[in-house]
Amino acid sequence: MSAHFDLTFLSKQPQPANPKALVVLLHGVGGCETNLVDLAAAISPETLVVMPRGPMTLGAGQYGWFRVNFTSAGPLIVETEAEQSRQTLLRFVAQLQSVYSIAPRKTVIAGFSQGGILSASVALSAPELVAGFGVLSGRILPELEPHVADKARLKNLHAFIGHGEYDSKLPVMWAQRSDQLLSDLGVAHLTRLYPIDHGISAEMQADFLSWLQSITSGV
């Protein structure tokens, strides 16, 4: 980890000499910074793609953003850890923008499962920091509510929600709740459901990349 940054991370190579945009991709619980390299490889070569490692060590080569137990009543999180990771990511994104001279309007944060959760947490609480966020088979934490910015601050934010209709880890109702919440908040968003379990299908990836291109190109 460089002295400039709060998190260890992997960057898509080769890095662009003068990146036109920044995409931060967050792995899920129990994963690591290499998990989303295939998605990163499909992103424009003019974009700096950064894949940080979650700050919590859960096992050998396994990291996370907060601890969670999946119960019959739904996921139970360690809220203080989720909040600490949100704060860490706020600093980390700002550090990347400063070091690489990339504006918030050209910055997107996205992730898979727990990584998508943190992407939403960052963007909805600090919409001035990013142009948009992507939640791939994740959810928006109900515990985030006290930190969500008001509608005036959220008016320029964009979001992508992609979810499997047969998700056995985070049921599709979480995507439906996210869709409704974003509508209530006035956040422009695209929600797509896919005939898959908990994961990222080729179709979901393609839809996310198309959305991403529209956001980072300023369309």
Task: Describe the 3D structure.
By secondary structure, the protein is an alpha/beta fold. 32% of the residues lie in helices and 25% in strands. It is built from 6 helices and 11 strands. The strands form 3 sheets. The protein has a 7-stranded mixed β-sheet with strand order 1-3-2-8-9-10-11, sandwiched between helices. A two-stranded antiparallel sheet has the order 4-5. Strands 6-7 form a two-stranded antiparallel ribbon. A hairpin with a 2-residue loop joins strand 6 (68-71) and strand 7 (74-77). The longest helix has 22 residues, at 79-100. 42% of the residues are buried. The mean pLDDT is 94.
Global outline: globular
Terminus-to-terminus distance: 35 Å
Question: So what's the oligomer here?
Answer: single chain
Strand content range: 25-35%
The largest beta-sheet arranges its strands as 1-3-2-8-9-10-11
Percent helix among the residues?
Answer: 25-40%
CA gyration radius, whole angstroms: 16 Å
Secondary structure tally, helices = 6
Low-confidence stretches: none
β-strand number: 11
Query: Major sheet, described briefly?
Result: 7 strands, mixed
Order of helices and strands: EEHEEEEEHEHEHEHEH
- Average residue pLDDT: 94
Structural class: alpha/beta
